[in-house]
Amino acid sequence: MDARKGEVYAAFFRESNGRLERMGNEQVGAPEAILRVIGSPHLVVGDAVEIYEERIRAIAGDYAVLAPRDLHFPRASVVARLARNSLQAASRDGQGRVVPHYIRQSDAELRIKRVDPTEG
Fold first, then answer.
1. Burial of 77 (0-12, 13-18, 19+ CB in 10 A)
2. What are the DSSP calls for 21-54, one per residue?
3. What is the Cα 81 distance to its own chain's centre?
4. Which of 8, 12, 16, 49 has a CA that sits 20 to 30 A from residue 32's CA?
5. What's the CA gap between 10 and 34, in Å, rounded?
6. In sequence order, which ranges of the chain are alpha helices (DSSP H)?
7. Nearest Cα to Cα of residue 62 among 77, 44, 48
8. 16: alpha, beta or left? (left if phi > 0; alpha if psi -120 to 50)
9. What span, in angstroms and rounded, lies between the C-alpha atoms of 61 and 80?
10. What distance in Å separates the CA atoms of residue 118 and residue 65, rounded to the nearest whole number?
11. What pLDDT, on a 0 to 100 scale, did the predictor assign at position 8?
12. Is the distance from CB of 41 to CB of 15 less than 8 angstroms?
């Protein structure tokens, strides 16, 4: 997904027994940094594909299999199903709730950290 600022949000998945299994953590970075690790064909999907298509092809070449454009945006029904599955898993773990997971700090959080608290 487009993370703005010349970066993408990314995660790698593999299919296992008809289900997607995430391989490692989500990450944010320049497309070049994210894609330099692939050494086999990968399906690339998300709104960032249209924005960075030339860079993706230049970096990953034939290893980047670009999904059709109509699959780049998540459908509400798929997001709802994933949320339901996460909530059910959280309930089984005794947490009973789903909370947001932020991959990077917001610009406001970064600005607050840069402000010197001793300055008035």
1. exposed
2. EEEEEEEEE-HHHHHTT--S-EEE-STHHHHHHH
3. 18
4. 16
5. 7
6. 31-35, 48-60, 76-92, 107-114
7. 44
8. beta
9. 34
10. 52
11. 93
12. no
Cα–Cα dist 40/63, whole Å = 5
Virtual torsion, Cα 80, 44, 2, 57, nearest 10 deg: -170
**Cα(64)–Cα(44) distance, integer angstroms:** 6
pLDDT tens string 11-33: 999 888 888 888 989 999 999 99
The whole-angstrom distance between residue 16's C-alpha and the CA centroid of its chain comes to 19
Q: Would the pTM count as exceeding 0.90?
A: no
- At 29-71, the pLDDT tens digits run 999 999 988 999 999 999 999 999 999 999 999 999 999 888 8
* C-alpha to C-alpha distance for 25 and 45, rounded to whole angstroms: 17
